[in-house]
Amino acid sequence: MKVLICHTYYRQRSGECAVVERETELLRRHGHEVELFTYDNRDADSKGAVELTARSVYSPWTAAELKAFVDGRAFDVAHVHNTWVLASPSLFPALGALGLPVVKTIHNYRWLCPVATFYRDGHRCHDCVEKAGGVLHCVVHRCYGGNLKGSLAAAARLKLARDVLHVYQREIDVIIVQNDFVRDQLTRAGFDSARMVTKGNFLEVPAGIRPSRGDYLIFFGRHEPSKGLATLLEAMGQNRIPLQIFGEGPLTEWLKSETERRFPGQTRRVRVAGHVPRRDLDEAIAGSRAVVFPSEWYESYPLAIVEAMAFGKPVVASNLGGAATIVRDEVNGLLFPPGDAEALARCLARLWSDDGLQTRLEAGARLTYHAEMAPQANYDRLMAAYAMAIAAHASGTKEIE
What we know:
With 401 residues, this protein is of the alpha/beta class. The chain has helices at residues 15-29, 49-58, 62-70, 91-97, 127-130, 136-140, 148-164, 167-171, 180-188, 229-236, 252-262, 278-286, 303-310, 323-326, 341-353, 355-373, 375-395, and strands at residues 2-9, 33-40, 77-80, 102-105, 119-120, 123-124, 174-177, 196-198, 217-220, 243-246, 270-274, 290-293, 315-318, 333-336. The chain has 17 helices and 14 strands.
């Protein structure tokens, strides 16, 4: 099979970019021919203000650039990941003009929330899908980084592509959603669930690392308010369990000072390890007792959870969004109400003191990984999505709403 993968790289490389690279390698390993049509948002700085705004809302350049890239080559299917900023939703009709079946993976909530997060000003927000005025709330609240022009562009892009031109309804054959939470959000907004296929992310277990049950918990991820780090520190003040915190971000310095303030003389128990090489992080995960995932926004399919379960580690996660569909309470981890430090502390204490529970959840994590997150399981679901798209495209059964 010949696959055209389309993706716009973010300024800061993200988990989504890693997924694109892993899926590309997975397809090539199975003998498929893969070409990548990509943009890089770091190139946005070279664009004039008018061109950048036009590209972000609905790029008039994408069709010509795609046509020049394909240049007569034949593909069986096109698989689209991110189109923000430089590609824009105009990529989809451009692919349709080339006669290609189109698959789109939903990595976030950009079809419903102009800035893709359902999160603003430190809390979850559904204004753009639940209140009169729709995407105008993005402009009112300046959701795009506090910037009026950026918020206008993000709102205009969603309104034009989804509600005026119906690009997502007309031009996409199969929508890959990463979990049932995302499926439910899209379905409630009017998207056709019959065109959706559920497929999460996957990970190859790193070679040469043997998991062991260690004497510490681990958090790893970007240090930002939505990750629930304040809740995590408050919970750690209610026990004596060791915790290692990896990653970096805008809250890193606050995290270091807050740890020193809350746990004087205990910095070896609650340790901010920061950014470390990938191999060191893998070894830390493999040697932990469990992974803590206290996020307070609707993550889709967090790679941190995939990485934990690849090593057979239970996950203690907030009962929210995609995480709550991957972590099954009492099966492969424990769930607690988001932002509830006392409930989190109780989960951690329970896991720490109950070896029987720990053993059962470790087994559940391993089973989840092999059934849903291992490369072969992911490949099989990806091939099913491609076959469905090719068949739908041939029969012309896409719904227009």
